[in-house]
Protein: Cation efflux protein transmembrane domain-containing protein
Organism: Polyplosphaeria fusca
Amino acid sequence: MSSEPQPSSPPAGQAASETTAPVEAGLSSPKSSSNQSAVTARGHVDAINPASPKGIAFDGDTKEQVLEVNSYAGEDPLDLGKHRRSNVSQRQMKIDHPDANKRHMKKFYTRQNALIDQFLQSGDEERLAAIDTLENGPKVKFAVNASFLVNFCLFIIQMYAAISTGSLSLFATAADAFMDLVSSIVMLVTSRLASRPSVYKYPVGRTRIETIGIIMFCCLMTTVAIQLIIESGRTLGGGPKESEELHIIPLVFVGIAIFCKGSLCIYCFFFRRYPAVHVFFIDHRNDIVVNVFGLAMSIVGTRVAWFVDPIGAILIGLLILVSWAANAYEHIWLLVGKSAPGEYISKLIYLVVTHDTRIRKVDTCRAYHAGQNYYVEVDIVMDEDAPLKVTHDVSQTLQRKLEGGFSNILTASSIQNVD
C-alpha cells in the first residue's frame, strides 16, 4: 500500500480473533476444537457456518481432507470486496474528501482497488498462469526467434551500408547490430538452459542463469559502446577528410532495417512482461533511435559538415552505454537478493492468513529475488496445544499452495510456531 490515508480495514495478517468451529475425526485436541482461530480484516468473529460443507469433517486424515475441513468458506473470506471503491474519479474524491488532494486520493484508491482485485483472484493464480503459458508460449518463442533472425539479417545489411558509405555513424549502427546478434545467441542459450533443470546438480533449478545471460548481454553492449566512443574520438581529433558521395541504396537498406526493428518492437511490447522478450523490446526500441539518428548524422556529415558524423557516432555510443549499463545494474540486484515489492508481499500474507483457520497470525513473511523469481519464507503461528501432525500438514499444504499458485516462486518455506 502507500503512506497516504489508509483504507478502513487494516492490512491482512494484523488482526486475529478466535472462533469455534465443529471439528471431528480426531484432527485436533479437545481444546483446539473449541479454539480455532480465524483471521479477519475487521477484528470481529467470523465463525464457519456449521451447515456449510466447509465446516463438516470427513473420515480419514489425508492432507487434502485436513485442508478442506479447515479452509475458509466463500471467495472473499475477509470481506474485502466492500472496501472496493466503484467510483474513483477526481470529482468523487473532491466530494468524499474535500480537504484532501483529490489527485492523490484517486491514486490511492486506484491502487487499493487493484490490490483487492489481486487478493480476490489469488486462488486462480495457477490456473491463469497455465492458461497464459498455453496461449502466449508460442508467441513468446516467436518473438525471441524472430528477433534473432532479424538481428542476423540486419547486421549484414547495415555492415554493407557502413562499408559502402564509410560513415562512422553507420559503422556504429553496424557494430550495434553485430553485438545484438552475439547477445541474441547468449539469450537463446541461457533460455534453453533455464528450461532444462537438472534436479540432482541444481536442486532449485537454473532459472537464475537467464538473469546472468541478461547481464552478459549488457556487458557486451557497453563494451562495444566504449570502443565506438574511442574510435570516433580519434577520427574527430584527426581533422577533416574528403567526404564521399552519398549512396542511395545503402541508405534504403538502413530504412528497411528501421522498419523491421519497428515492427518487432511493437510486437515485443505486448509480451514485455516475459524477461527474454523484455530485453529484446529494449534492444529494438534503442535500435530504432540509434539507426534513425545514425542515418541522419551520416547524411548531414556527408552533405554539410564532416565533424557531424563522428560526433553522431559518439552520441550513439553514449546512448548505448547508458541504456545497457542501467539495465545491468537493475539485474545485478536481482541476483543479490532484492526484496519483492510491497504489494507482492501483501498478497502473500493474504494467501497465508486465508489458507487455514488454525493459522492464528503471520509472524514473518519475506520474499526476495533469486534471479527473475522469488524465494519466499513464511513463519506462521498456531495454537501451542495443536498436534505436531496438524501443524506439519498445515505448513506443508501452505508451502505447496504458494509454490503451485505463483509461477514466479522458486521455493517457499513455511515454519510453524506456537503461541
Observations:
- Residues 125-165 form the longest helix (41 residues).
- The longest strand covers residues 361-370.
